[in-house]
Amino acid sequence: MRRKCTDSLIQWKKNPHRHPLLLQGLRQTGKTWLALDFAEKNYKNTLYLNLETDKPVADYLSVSRPPQDALLFLEAYAEKPLLPSVSLLILDNIQCVPELSTLLATISLDYPQYHILAIHRGLASPELYNKNDFHIISLYPLDFEEFLWANAEYALSREIRRHFSTLTPLGKELHQKALSQFYLYLVTGGMPLSILEYRREKKLLMVPDIQQKLLELILSDISSQAPTGMTRHCQNAWLSIPAQLEKSSRRFQYSLITKGATAKTYEKPLDWLLRSGYALACRQTSLHLYPTDCGLCARVLGVPSYQLLTGSDTPAARACTETFLAQHFTRNGYTLSYWSSGNQAEVPFLLEKEGRHIAVDYRLTPHQKTRNLTRFRAEMNTNAEMYLLSVEDFREKENYHIVPVYAGFCV
């Protein structure tokens, strides 16, 4: 499946001043596949070592070594030569050997001719992997555009981008087709295995089973990676996020995680989940939290696939749609916050990136009255761009743009 990150990998290869590349992301987002596919298409030979399963390598690298000794050992273990420019060394699951960051940074200084790609499960600690020593790329679940590519809907993705740039209607037929694909994406989400399962026979019957296995793997990762004494709290907090999105209030409440839960008990576990990439945060006076994938959100909530495919405006559909938006805005590099005016109005997403500010509201019922953006502009006296993401086709309003919800990846 075509991934947008591939372009960044190619740019890294061409950079004469490259640092080791750190490819990070949650389990099963496609990191290893992407790295091996990139290596096969761009290098003559690949040295792939998995520090989770290649125990002799992990044990050797966990002790401080001179760079030359380490490179000799890796060549001998892989039984392949590491050649300048034409070989790629891939070290998978480097979170198993935290000490490795220092060695990789040193190799980069002493032997810049070698190309090294490291894969980290979860988000790597900035204390270990400094941006001055590593080129860091985060891999997320497939976004909606990549989902369209995976299903050979290249023309549809191009049309969505073209009409977003002109804000002219897509037309009834294409708009309905894009909406159907969007509802389908809410079910599968962006995890590669879920999409592959659907694509295999164009059926959804086994997708929930795949997602359940993914959930179990994520909970297992949380269990193995969470700080000592926090495992159960981290798992409880993570499972509570989708359920709390079904409430009328978006504010995440500690008391709803489990009976008797308090901020004192759950502040640190939640902070760890956010720093490790297991959840997305939208901050202001309170905290709004989202899972990293709308398909997994649907699975935790137990919402039937047929319900999402109908496009019905239900609490579960709103939870999955907001997760879809948070997932895409984060993927596009925005910092997420929100705006509220007491109990009168709320804009769920205020986006900021490099000085650019965008206000985003959404609705799942056509022509449903929404005054949040108008109220926001009047009270804040701002010239921020404003979008209402809707199930309607593209069109312009006086104060904001109406954009189909499936075009969230264009924002």
Describe this structure in words.
The chain is α/β, with parallel strands linked by helices and 411 residues long. The protein has two domains: 5-138, 3-Layer(aba) Sandwich (Rossmann fold); 144-410, no CATH class. It is built from 16 helices and 13 strands. The strands form three sheets. It has a six-stranded mixed beta sheet. The chain has a five-stranded parallel beta sheet with strand order 2-3-4-1-5, sandwiched between helices. α5 links the parallel β3 (87-92) and β4. α13 (294-301) packs antiparallel against α15. The longest helix is centred in the middle third of the chain and has 19 residues, at 207-225. The two termini are 23 Å apart. The mean pLDDT is 95. It comes from Blautia wexlerae. This is ATP-binding protein. Residues 18-148 form the AAA domain. Residues 221-360 form the DUF4143 domain. One of its GO terms (molecular function) is ATP binding.
- State the helicity in percent bands: 40-55%
End-to-end distance, in Å?
23 Å
Q: Which sequence of SSEs, written as H and E, runs from N to C?
A: HEHEHHEHEEHHHHHHHEEHHHEEEHEEE
- Tally the structural domains: 2
Rg over CA atoms: 23 Å
- Secondary structure: number of strands: 13
Q: How large a portion of the residues is in β-strands, by DSSP E?
A: 15-25%
Question: Quick one: overall form?
Answer: globular
The count of helical stretches stands at 16
The biggest beta sheet reads: 6 strands, mixed
Quick check: average pLDDT? 95
Low-confidence stretches are none
What structural class do the secondary elements suggest? alpha/beta
Oligomer: single chain
The largest beta-sheet arranges its strands as 8-9-10-11-13-12
Protein name: ATP-binding protein
Domain DUF4143: 221-360
GO molecular function: ATP binding
Domain AAA: 18-148
